[in-house]
Design goal:
The chain is of the alpha+beta class and 95 residues long. It folds into 2 domains: 41 residues; 54 residues, Irregular (HU Protein, Chain A), CATH 4.10.520. The chain has 3 helices and 5 strands, in the order H-H-E-E-E-E-E-H. The strands form 2 sheets. Strands 1-2-5 form a 3-stranded antiparallel sheet. It has a two-stranded antiparallel sheet with strand order 3-4.
């Protein structure tokens, strides 16, 4: 699902709201989440899960093509932990 798909879903679900307003709400939500993560806060959406920034320590790695050892610097990555409701919906269905 892309952002445009989500916007179309919201338009169908809330026909009494203007597309422009729903677009602003969606963008505002993503902006708030991005800002919170950039500030080091955790973002938790009940039923869906939580987003948290983790720091991956720097390490030594090997370039598989040349075999040369390189230093990989530390970096920040976003970690998503699935909520109970989402986990139940995903894993209770037969594949």
């Amino acid at each position: 699902m892309r952002k445009s798909d989500l916007l179309n879903y919201l338009i169908e679900r809330f026909p009494h709201l203007k597309k422009k307003d729903l677009h602003a709400i969606l963008n505002g939500t993503f902006e708030a989440m991005t800002e919170a993560l950039a500030n080091g806060d955790k973002v938790e959406i009940r039923g869906l899960g939580s987003f948290k920034v983790k720091v991956k320590q720097g390490r030594r790695a090997r370039n598989p093509k040349t075999g040369v050892t390189v230093e990989v610097p530390q970096k920040r990555v976003v970690h998503f932990k699935m909520g109970k409701v989402l986990k139940r919906k995903l894993f209770s269905r037969p594949v």
